[in-house]
Design a protein that fits this description.
The chain has two domains: about 100 residues, Alpha-Beta Plaits (2-Layer Sandwich); about 80 residues, 2-Layer Sandwich (Alpha-Beta Plaits), CATH 3.30.70. It is built from six helices and eight strands, in the order βαββαβαβαββαβα. Helix 1 crosses helix 2 and helix 4 runs antiparallel to helix 5.
């Protein structure tokens, strides 16, 4: 590992967008998402996520700067840091992956440490979208609205804080995903607090490799 870059932000939604921005900004690998709970209650979201990237020093610097800029615009940036030539013992810690705990994507590795590039799918959907909502009831209402609003596929669920924070990810065409996210956010917000929603057109494969995007009906 030539260099390790870390960007710490509030909310899973922000972390996903930061990872996409970072991967598009420079030739880096997104190696993991890690998480923690903020201590104070008066924060933008009740979840702290760390996006970790690796590459040469210049590429990691460019990727981290791009991700940091995005997070600051969203008002959800915490801190970023780059370690050039990290020691051997740091690699396992760097690759700690704390998503996919719902067993939603059973085919995907629990760590990308020593996973060859040939085993990582390069294909990405036209668009992915997500809503991050407080509470399971609100999340189910939001998901129902998303799937009814447009031709999209649910590709991932991420439940945190005992179900008090749920992120739903759907894929499809840009127009379909946009319509679904809008409908899901509108339906769920009256029931539970909405902590994030976003649509990524042409998401980078360094992001989508963390989710099961394999579907014969993708448009």
């Amino acid at each position: 590992m030539k260099a390790l870059g870390m960007i710490e932000v509030y909310s899973f939604t922000t972390a996903l967008c930061v990872a996409d921005v970072a991967a598009k900004a420079a030739d880096v690998k997104v190696i993991a998402f890690d998480r923690n709970r903020p201590i104070r209650p008066d924060v933008p979201a009740p979840l702290v996520m760390v996006v970790k990237v690796e590459g040469n020093v210049a590429a990691v610097q460019a990727a981290v700067e791009a991700g940091e800029e995005y997070a600051k615009k969203e008002g959800k940036f915490i801190v970023s840091h780059i370690i050039a030539n990290p020691g051997d013992g740091a690699e396992k810690m760097a690759y700690l992956l704390d998503i996919n705990r719902d067993k939603f994507n059973k085919k995907l590795p629990k760590s990308f440490l020593n996973v060859p590039d040939s085993e990582i799918p390069e294909r990405a959907p036209t668009a992915i979208g997500f809503i991050e909502i407080e509470g399971l009831v609100a999340a189910i209402e939001g998901l129902d609205a998303m799937l009814k609003a447009a031709d999209v596929r649910l590709v991932h669920t991420e439940k945190r804080l005992g179900g008090r924070l749920v992120t739903l990810i759907v894929s499809g065409s840009v127009s379909a995903v946009s319509a679904a996210v809008e409908a899901g956010a509108k339906a769920s917000a009256p029931i539970g607090k909405l902590f994030g929603s976003a649509v990524l057109a042409n998401p980078h494969s360094e992001l989508t490799k963390f989710f099961d995007m394999d579907t014969p009906n993708q448009k």
